[in-house]
Write a structure and sequence with these properties.
ten-stranded parallel sheet; UDP N-Acetylglucosamine Acyltransferase, domain 1; UDP_GlcNAc_AcTrfase_non-rep; about 25% strand; Udp-n-acetylmuramoylalanyl-d-glutamate--2,6- Diaminopimelate Ligase, Chain: A, domain 1
Length: about 350
């Protein structure tokens, strides 16, 4: 168990402590469940009415809520960011591997940096380069001439194909595949002819990729994930996609080939993006968005029909099927009105 004094919390968060700096905390908890020894936070002012009943040892708040705290208060610029910093400091997640397992298969010419850990039954092929402090979990496969930067961590059963490049300080969750063939085929009289995918995947620094996600290699040029991108679980990123700096993509999203997504975009879960389109910087697409055309301007975009009762949905579906008929009738009425105006 990790323990921190409130003085240490203030240093970690850059906050201003109001209370006993020597008191110790060992866990983070929600405000309504926090007990003595816990640190909690208030990020949404509408919940400030619950502060008086909070039993946490210390509460991270903005200055405007400090007087409402019944216990020690840590005033911070952004309580949610402070929460993230504190959870990192209290994190007890074990490493995917420690040391080099005897059952790991490592090519003689692979280059391993300092303090590399490789788990049981992992395979490191010829020409691979692993930076300092890299951790490769059990059962991972690192293909020929792949390069993995300093401090990058792969959980169990990740597959990195040949020539793929991962930057520094990346985190890849279990069963993700990076560098599989893109979906490229030509058709000759009904017969599919495979197009070998000759590009690769280049992943920048400080990128996090969730479990069971697939990022395909490029057909001729590379698929590119820029720095500071976060990608959730169970996603499909097709060949030659380009994802810009600082973009966040939620689970179940599918991005078709050769699509370019700008910087600082937010893509909601279960969205589908068509191929060969461009998404501008700063675009937010809400969950289950279906993006068929390029989005040239920053903003929030949505599509789809929100959940309704089955009875309401049946009515809506019936009306949708009659749109063409209704449109023709509307145009006929408009023509009649125009004739009356001219008369």
């Amino acid at each position: 168990m990790i323990t921190l004094t409130l003085a240490e919390l203030a240093t970690i968060t850059g906050g201003e402590l109001h209370g006993d700096s020597s008191v110790v905390v060992s866990a983070v908890a929600p405000m309504d469940k926090a007990q003595e020894g816990d640190v909690t936070f208030l990020s949404n002012p509408k919940y400030s009415k619950h502060l008086a009943a909070c039993k946490a040892t210390v509460i991270m708040v903005r200055e405007s809520e400090r007087e409402l705290c019944p216990s020690n208060a840590l005033v911070v610029a952004d309580p949610y960011v402070a929460f993230a910093r504190v959870t990192q400091a209290l994190d007890t997640t074990p490493s995917p591997a420690t040391g080099i397992a005897p059952s790991a298969v490592i090519a003689d010419d692979a280059k391993l940096g300092d303090n590399v850990s490789i788990g049981a039954n992992a395979v490191i092929e010829s020409g691979v380069e692993l930076g300092n402090n890299v951790v490769i979990g059990a059962g991972c496969f690192i293909g020929k001439h792949a390069k993995i930067g300093h401090n990058t961590k792969l959980w169990a059963n990740v597959t990195i194909y040949h020539n793929v490049v991962l930057g520094d300080d990346c985190l890849v969750q279990s069963s993700t595949v990076i560098g599989a063939d893109g979906f490229g085929y030509a058709n000759e009289k009904g017969e599919w002819i495979k197009i070998p995918q000759l590009g690769s995947v280049r992943v920048g620094n400080r990128v996090e990729i969730g479990a069971c996600t697939t990022i395909d290699r490029g057909a001729l040029e590379d698929t590119i994930i820029e720095d500071n991108v976060i990608i959730d679980n169970q996603m499909q990123i097709a060949h030659n996609v380009h994802i810009g700096y600082g973009t966040a993509m939620a689970g179940g999203t599918i991005v078709a080939g050769s699509t370019s997504i700008g910087k600082y975009c937010i893509i909601g879960g279960a969205s589908v993006l068509n191929g060969h389109i461009e998404i501008a910087d700063g675009v937010t697409i809400t969950g289950m968005g279906m993006v068929m055309r390029s989005i040239p301007e920053k903003g929030v975009y949505s599509s789809g029909i929100p959940l309704q009762t089955n009875k309401e949905w049946r009515k809506t579906a019936t009306r949708v099927h009659r749109i063409d008929e209704m449109n023709k009738r509307l145009k006929a009425v408009e023509k009649q009105l125009e004739r009356k105006k001219d008369a």
